[in-house]
Amino acid sequence: MKKLNIGLYGFGVVGKGLYTVLQNSKTVDAQIHSICVKQEKERSIDRKLFTRDQNRIINDQYINVVVELIDDAEEAYVIVKKALLAGKDVVSGNKKMLAAHLKELIQIQKDTGHSLLYDASACGSIPIIRNLEEYYDNDLLLSITGILNGSSNYILTKIFRDNQNYHSALKQAQELGFAESNPAFDVNGNDSLYKLVIIAAHAFGLLVSPDDVFRFGIAQINDFDVQFAREKGLKIKLVAKVLKTENNLVSLYVAPQFVQPDEYIYNVEEEYNGVVIEGAFYDKQFMFGKGAGAHPTGSAVLSDITALSHHYKYEYKKLKYFNKPELTNETILNIYLRYTRKEDLKHFKFIEVTEQYASKETHYVVGKIKLASLISVKEIIADLPVFLGVI
User: Fold this and answer.
1) Taking the C-alpha atoms of 198, 204, 209 and 211 in order, what is their torsion angle to the nearest 10 degrees?
2) Residue 325 has what DSSP assignment?
């Protein structure tokens, strides 16, 4: 087991959580040698650890591991790339950066022989990436379905369990620190999308741009949609899904889903995440845990650090050893679409309508539609007074 001297970028919620769990861990020979922050402020730990100079950590030969835990995706990309090229192993929690640059970062790892680990980026305390790499390292996977965003799930829990409306539930999530003052990243599905792109690479060997994936969040949910779900005995969850279809084709999407009581994710509540892995011969397996927070995510980062002490690298087996699948948007989904203006319906090319309702103020249809049709409206759908969910 090698000794790890860590250079840490960022000392926010997760950075502080990592510092705490590392102080209490006896299983890894690692210490934080330097912490790069944007602002000097009073802190409860040794001020000598802190620097505002990004290059100090990169140029420090004593530091052999860089841990990147900052919010800015482009800045994180620069740090991670520089660190790998400087001969250091890296742990990152920045899912937006990873989703945008994964192909290049995989190549840099190959060229340098150094390791980039990021299990903490995908599902907080749920070790989904390493399980996909090690346990599900075959071509038997059929789908992965997950609640990947704790903030949205907390809001939906308050709506369905505690009878709050969206705005009061959002406000409470913000007050408790589960949602940011600007919650768009979570409630619009971006966070789930970036995590799904990372998961798809390890599950199916598919490297896809986030721009090519349909994403729709929960920001436009209203009481009518909630009542529709309740009348049918369902809950609405924000779900990210990647599924393998025939002929080695794979589809991805992020959207609200009407969930039945017998589905595993039906009872995933509050800020928790849940992931269902389905395979050809082992049916369904379920992983559950906290998807956010200082100590759960800090513990996931520590797990990656511990893996580095044993010289662990992702092998990207699905990219190397199996026929690479192709992305398809020909998958047919059954969706609920609520709208108020009849002209908005023309944007959605339904193959078949199985249920519909019209009143003076609100209309809805339930029917089959190609994923490609939804992708064709993904640039405008957030500006339309509509809500949709997969049934």
Assistant:
1) -90
2) P
Considering the domain 4-126+294-320 in this protein, what is its CATH number?
Answer: 3.40.50.720
Sort 203 into a burial class: Cβ within 10 Å, 0-12 / 13-18 / 19+. buried
Per-residue three-class SS string for the chain: CCCEEEEEECCCHHHHHHHHHHHCCCCCCEEEEEEECCCCCCCCCCHHHEECCHHHHHHCCCCCEEEECCCCHHHHHHHHHHHHHCCCEEEECCHHHHHHHHHHHHHHHHHHCCCEECCHHHHCCCCHHHHHHHCCCCCCEEEEEEECCHHHHHHHHHHHHHCCCHHHHHHHHHHCCCCCCCCHHHHCCHHHHHHHHHHHHHHHCCCCCHHHCEECCCCCCCHHHHHHHHHCCCEEEEEEEEEEEHHHEEEEEEEEEEECCCCHHHHCCCCEEEEEEEECCCEEEEEEEECCCHHHHHHHHHHHHHHHHCCCCCCCHHHHHCCCCEECCCCEEEEEEEECCHHHHHHCCEEEEEEEEECCCCEEEEEEEEHHHHHCCCCCHHHCCEEEEEC
The domain spans of the chain are 4-126+294-320, 133-290+325-390
Kindly report, residue by residue over 242-284, the tens digit of the pLDDT.
999 888 899 999 999 999 999 999 999 999 999 999 999 888 9
Among 16, 158, 195, 318, the one annotated catalytic: 195
Q: pLDDT digit string (tens) for 282-301?
A: 889 999 998 767 777 888 89
Q: Which of 293, 96, 70, 101 is nearest to 190 (CA)?
A: 96
3-class state of residue 316 by DSSP: coil
148-200 pLDDT per residue, tens: 999 999 999 999 999 999 999 999 988 887 777 789 999 999 999 999 999 99
Is position 195 annotated as part of the catalytic site?
Answer: yes
- On the question of pLDDT at 210 being above 90, the answer is yes
Q: Which CATH class is domain 133-290+325-390?
A: alpha beta
Work out the angle between the directed axes of helices 95-112 and 190-204 (0-180°, nearest 10).
30
